[in-house]
């Protein structure tokens, strides 16, 4: 059985950062094999992990869309568009020593690309069985889950900054998960970038008003800022950095 974790929340709240650090925890504690999926159109999980920008499914989609207009069609004669897409998509799987990664990129472009989404859905259905963990970094919305592109999700971690509006945005996502009856088992909130790692009482009240389950508070961390500014992969942050220490409590609570 694959245990799947997806991240959601307003842009800039730290989804990719937390996703990368949790992935790093799973890798270092030997919980593999793991498949990381970067489902954000503006893909950057690779940067947190210190990997080159990989070929994305969106790139392949573009390539296939273009192929129909170009004189020199890359699709070999006798191969259908679907078969070619499938073949190219298989080559988009990044295989690292400790985990694999699939990067969606811009999969929602002009025109109808339903067949690409279908292939993507199939691909994930087929691949995810091979992994113990599926870790998905999302963009703000949950399109990939609501469209049924991702397999059912065991755990959604909503990431918010420590603003009232951030918490309200997380609350709206949680409500949407319920309203749409999305296939999700557990939803918890992580508040990130809290000054001194502590929550203001007003924010705590808002979390309760939104009916959210708070699983942890991560501090605003100078080291994250420095690493980001220097272009250093955040997975190389030492274990004693405040954000890592706070996250390890969350990981413990979640039994990951
Ligand atoms: N705990 C933290 N302390 C300091 N900076 C942080 C922290 N968490 C995230 N950041 C920074 O905030 C910015 C947005 O984070 P990111 O993970 O890309 O957010 P999202 O994926 O939700 O858009 C990045 O520059 C990141 O380095
Ligand atoms: Mg992100």
Describe the protein.
The protein is α/β, with parallel strands linked by helices. It has a single domain, classed as P-loop containing nucleotide triphosphate hydrolases (Rossmann fold). The protein is 41% helix and 20% strand. The protein contains 10 helices and 8 strands. The chain has helices at 15-28, 45-49, 57-67, 81-90, 114-128, 143-146, 164-179, 201-209, 222-229, 242-254; strands at residues 3-8, 34-39, 94-95, 99-103, 133-138, 153-160, 184-194, 214-219. The chain has an 8-stranded mixed sheet with strand order 3-4-2-5-1-6-7-8, sandwiched between helices. Strand 7, helix 8 and strand 8 form a beta-alpha-beta unit. Helix 1 (15-28) crosses helix 10 (242-254) and helix 7 (164-179) runs parallel beside helix 8 (201-209). The protein starts with a strand and ends with a helix. The mean pLDDT is 90. Magnesium ion binds at residues 15-16, 40, 44, 137.
Features of the shown structure:
256 residues, alpha/beta, Rossmann fold, eight-stranded mixed β-sheet, 10 helices, globular, binds adenosine-5'-diphosphate, binds magnesium ion
Task: Provide a count of the helices.
Answer: 10
Indicate the low-confidence ranges by residue numbers: none
**CATH level 4 superfamily:** P-loop containing nucleotide triphosphate hydrolases
Percentage of residues assigned to helices: 40-55%
Task: Give the CA-based shape.
Answer: globular
CATH architecture: 3-Layer(aba) Sandwich
Radius of gyration: 19 Å
Q: How many independent structural domains?
A: 1
- Work out the number of β strands: 8
> Biggest β-sheet, characterized?
8 strands, mixed
Q: What is the CATH C level class, in words? A: Alpha Beta
N to C succession of SSEs:
EHEHHHEEHEHEHEHEHH
